[in-house]
Amino acid sequence: MRALITRARSSLLTSFDTGLEPFGVTGAQFEVLKNLARSDNETAASLCRSLHYDTGSMTRMLDRLQEKGLVTRERDTSDRRLVFLRLTRTGESLIPKIQPALRRALRRHLAGFSAQEVASLKRYLGRIIENGRRDGEPR
To answer: Is the CATH number of domain 2-113 1.10.10.10?
Structure first.
């Protein structure tokens, strides 16, 4: 079972990466951009927790996103130890351009599934996630 979940995840991520090549970002980088679009107070530490990355990997990813002009780092004026991450206008404008490529990749993986099967799959995956949360996984 674990191997199937791992292989399905890997297949999806590979497909997402391929679909995002024209935009110059990876699926993992898009996840960071998407999280930053949802919140005004994201830090590298909060992204590490929510996306399950170690700090070194996250720092390298943020460096790449900053080099591409998609993300900026801003020190908190009241606590200089805090560095907030912000999308640039370029980063903000990239998100809606990317989403159709991700939807195409997902549709390709769900080809042949009925609407009822997709709904069941969503329910099953949601239950797996919820069961994991009961064991102390963060929300």
So the answer is: yes
Residue in this structure with the two tokens 């908190």, named with its chain if needed: 76
Which of 19, 38, 16, 18 minimizes the C-alpha distance to 91?
38
Full-model pTM: 0.80
The tokens of 51 are what?
A: 């996306």
Q: Where are the beta strands (DSSP E) in 76-115?
A: 83-87
What is the per-residue pLDDT across 107-133, written as a single tens digit (0 to 9) for each? Answer: 999 999 999 999 999 999 999 989 988
Q: Which residues are registered as beta bridge partners of 83?
A: 75
Region 73-78 average pLDDT: 86
**HEC string of 9-60?**
HHHHHHHHHHHHHHHCCCHHHHHHHHHHHHCCCCEHHHHHHHHCCCHHHHHH
